[in-house]
Each structure stands twice: as structure tokens, then as C-alpha cells.
């Protein structure tokens, strides 16, 4: 099931932010026994021109907005590295 979630995260981020680089990694294995284990723990590294001129909080909000309903329903934890090209 996590492979499907990784692909869905990739799809949503690609559609919303047109990244030039995107890595999405399932980190659920690091959280065995943790309270949100069933919903998924992920890491996303995204480089997008859409982040140019934005501060880190704005960038994270853009990622959360792109993921929409996945955040409360399908993702328990998401670590984000969001950069503009050249950073």
C-alpha cells in the first residue's frame, strides 16, 4: 500500500509544483510501533521553480496544499526538503 501512496504523492506534487527534481521515500520502517504507523511516514525532497522567493514556511504550505486530503487521511508524518533550483 505504501508504494501506491508514494506514487500518489509524486503525482500530486508533480501536477501542482512542476518539480525539476523529486524524491519521495517511504520511511515507515523508522516508525514501527509509533502511533501513526498505519497512515505512513514519508520524506519528500522537491526542487521546484515555484519555490523561488518563498520562505520555508510558505514552501511547506505549498506542499501541504498540493497533497490535499492525503495529509490528514493518508499521511501521518511528512518530512520536507523544499528548494528552488540553484539552492
From TrEMBL:
It comes from the Bacteria. InterPro entries: BolA, BolA-like_sf. Signal peptide: none annotated. It holds the Pfam family BolA. Belongs to the BolA/IbaG family. This is BolA family transcriptional regulator.
Amino acid at each position: 500500500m505504501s508504494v501506491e501512496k508514494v506514487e500518489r504523492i509524486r503525482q500530486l506534487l508533480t501536477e501542482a509544483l512542476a518539480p525539476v527534481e523529486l524524491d519521495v521515500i517511504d520511511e515507515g520502517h523508522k516508525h514501527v510501533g509509533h502511533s501513526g504507523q498505519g497512515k505512513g511516514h514519508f520524506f519528500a525532497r522537491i526542487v521546484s521553480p515555484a519555490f523561488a522567493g518563498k520562505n520555508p514556511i510558505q514552501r511547506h504550505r505549498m506542499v501541504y496544499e498540493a497533497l490535499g486530503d492525503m495529509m490528514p487521511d493518508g499521511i501521518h508524518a511528512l518530512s520536507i526538503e523544499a528548494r528552488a533550483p540553484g539552492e
